[in-house]
Amino acid sequence: MSKEITSLSAAGLRKAYLRKDLSPVEVTKIAIAQIERLEPQLNAFAVQATPEALLEQAAMSERRWLDASPLGPLDGVPITIKDAIRTKGWPTVAGSHTVKPGQPWTEDSPAVARARESGAIFLGKTTTPEFGWKAVTDSPKYGITRNPWNFDRTPGGSSGGSAAALAAGIGHAAIGTDAAGSVRIPASLCGLVALKATTGRIPTYPPSALWRMGHIGPICRTVDDTAMMLNLLSRPDPRDWSALPPSGEDFELPRRSLAGLKVAFSPTLGYARVMPEIAQVVELAVRKLEDLGATIELVEAPFPDPTPAAMTMFAAGIVHSQRHLDDAAMAMLDPDLRAVIENSASVDREAYMSAVDQQIALTRNNRLFHQTYDLLVTPTLAVAAFEVGRNVAPDYDTANWMSWTPFTYPFNLTGQPAATVPCGLTAEGLPVGLQFVGDLYADALVLQAARLFETVSPFGHALPSCL
């Protein structure tokens, strides 16, 4: 029975609580046991709540459900928070020895506040590469985090601890960050769903080091859970003055078919080098969209390669965020991160503003593109999960982790909503993701299309062997 419970979605838990088939105490005990069993291999946690504190929260939730008065859709649902997001009572050190944990830590970020108000049970904070600088998850402070589909492989990053824990049946949803793909990358490598919503849809505080490229986003087991999380996390918070006003939309509303929608499929975006097996799995998955009624059109290069602009803006943000570090603190950093900072320190005003010009041109191009196409679909990544201890997949540019994640960062530049959904497995049994991208503000359409695809996905209900 514990296997069935650990693989339940948050929505599935909520239904079980409503029917009184399960209790938050029972579910939390199983989560605690799952942490004790798998965390030594996964290394997904930066901070863990004590079993006593978790069971106290669960008991309070159980009483609310017995009284038919749950606080919200996450009441009694165990979840995790990435160690880059402020959480009251727990340190937020972003995987770095340079951040001193002995601070009051008295504030929740907007997303954490919404989850707490909803009655979520916080299992702990999950690992990230130092300051979220790369797309795999290891750091000087916490070491290497591993993928539950194969403990010798990376879960991706930078929200890798969140995805690894969830895929291993630890918790039933997670909250991560995404400045160049950091919820979609690990979700794809771990067989999960994740959403980077339209810029400003989910209030963010403190602001990201990459400003408007940085997002907070949910990682979930299903698209239904993702839509529920977006309804919750998109509620207003005055600390983010740049957040969008409430849309008035219910992101959980379904769609019956994709009939009438014109969908562009771009296997490479015109510049990516994709592993042949990934390309094959994705192409087979895209055919399912035709079965759902969509008109599919192959578009090889919907926009010019935005990699130089993304690399410049990412590097400038990282350098600026660490400008206060003295030589002693710099020596404590991940050596590869220190090299990035040193090599990027010369990014000048002209280079940065040229990248901004490219960002503006890309955003304009893509808004016009969506006058013709309702959605764009791509592979989520160019590769499957590769060996831990590497920053870059084999045979890709060793100096640039973006070389194997070419499909995610363009939409951080433009602010468009983008979601990844599992679409199949490689011959080694590793997950592959399909990415759905919509026009600005079309979050609901992205989720509706992803939900319909999920019903016919070749991925089925596969689970990692540790479950």
UniProtKB/TrEMBL annotation:
Enzyme Commission number(s) of this protein: 3.5.1.4
Keyword Magnesium: no
Similarity annotation: Belongs to the amidase family.
Protein name as it appears in the record: Amidase
Record's keyword terms, sorted: Hydrolase
Record carries keyword Hydrolase: yes
Taxonomy, superkingdom: Bacteria
Entries under NCBIfam families matching the protein: PRK06169.1
Listed Pfam families: Amidase
Organism: Ferrovibrio xuzhouensis
GO molecular function: amidase activity
